[in-house]
Amino acid sequence: MFITLLSLFLALDTVSVDTVAQDTVGFQFTTVDSIAITPVKDQHRSGTCWAFSTLGFFESEVMRLNEGKQVDFSEMYVVNHTMMDRAEYVIRMYGDVEFAAGGSAYDVLYCMRNYGLVPQTAMPGILYGTTPADTLPMHNELDAIAKAYVKALCHNKKISRLTPVWKKGLQAVYDTYLGQCPSQFEVDSTTYTPQSYVDSLGLNPDDYVSITSFTHHPFYTRFALEVPDNWRMDQMYNVPLQDMMAIIDNAIATGYTLAWGADVSEVGFTRKGIGVMPDADKGADLTGSDMAHWLGLDEKERKSELTKRPLPEMEITQELRQQAFDNWETTDDHGMQIFGTAKDQNGKMYYMVKNSWGTKRSDYQGIWYISRAFMEYKTMDVLVHRDAIPADIRTKLGL
């Protein structure tokens, strides 16, 4: 047995194996740190993860700032405002940029600063049909109509001058599908506007900053990350990988959650609630499989073998992160909320992440366990309260 394990470890040239051993009983987690979050919601596969994840982050911020006070923000209020802004931007660019339902954490921050926020009770959205799943075809239909509307304005050669009412037409589409954005509403017998509601909860948009880590811009400066969903050109703070991870770790250790933008297209991200970075090119060695048998497995079967139990993972470097970004392997796929840490049965640390795919699409009631290697490799950016950043890094960033 010792010889077999030793041979396996020696074969792993680029894999860190210092704290992980193979285990055949699957993943078993013990919570280390956990910050209060609101219940898991379900975006029903619409392209609005950015709204769900970032509003979940701000809901946790309300709890932190208000002695555990729970709120439930309306996602569709933010989506309605954001998509109208995005349509205007795309039309100003003559349709030469993408118009899609995706977005970023900054879109929610921008909405909070410029339009305020409202509770779910004030704008619950519209349910078409009898079950929550009926919102999936609704969003597909809405996205198709809105995209066609904007495309028709941008690329119709017969239109040489836009009328002042095109916005009203598109606004009517979003209002019909998502509901109208309220200008006033009541909470606990008090009348609020969207902005006064934000103020009453102690949320200050200026307290939140976006952090990323890439080498094609200087560290400790700000730049607009070049991805389609950052269409507002949010100026993120760029830090080395070790500083980005120090920010994430310090936030959790001091009671702050983070809104997380990530790539979930990797083999190691499963629909069962796991995010790990086993070296897929060394799958046979990692799993102890016969090479001929391994090559005979299809892609789905290989993914299952690589993610059914703790395995050694890739050693992530700044260079690997950059390479994956530059060659389009790492993309801005999904938004979630980081809220804690846990350890598996081997003592290896994971981050606890709240997803917005409901409670039945993972083995952990809508929570994902993300390894440090995956977090290092596939984090696009995080949105965090500035006070959650270690003092020495804040000084370097001028915060």
What does this structure look like?
This protein is α+β, with helices and mostly antiparallel strands and 399 residues long. Helices cover 38% and strands 16% of the residues. It has 14 helices and 14 strands. It has helices spanning 2-10, 49-65, 75-92, 105-114, 135-155, 166-178, 194-200, 241-253, 283-287, 291-295, 299-307, 318-326, 372-378, 391-397, and strands spanning 15-16, 30-34, 185-187, 190-192, 208-212, 221-224, 235-238, 258-262, 274-275, 313-314, 334-343, 349-354, 367-371, 379-385. Strands 2, 5, 6, 7, 8, 9, 11, 12, 13 and 14 form a ten-stranded mixed beta sheet that branches. A hairpin with a 5-residue loop joins strand 11 and strand 12. Helix 2 packs across helix 4 (105-114). The chain is globular. It starts with a helix and ends with a helix. Mean pLDDT is 88; it is low at 1-22.
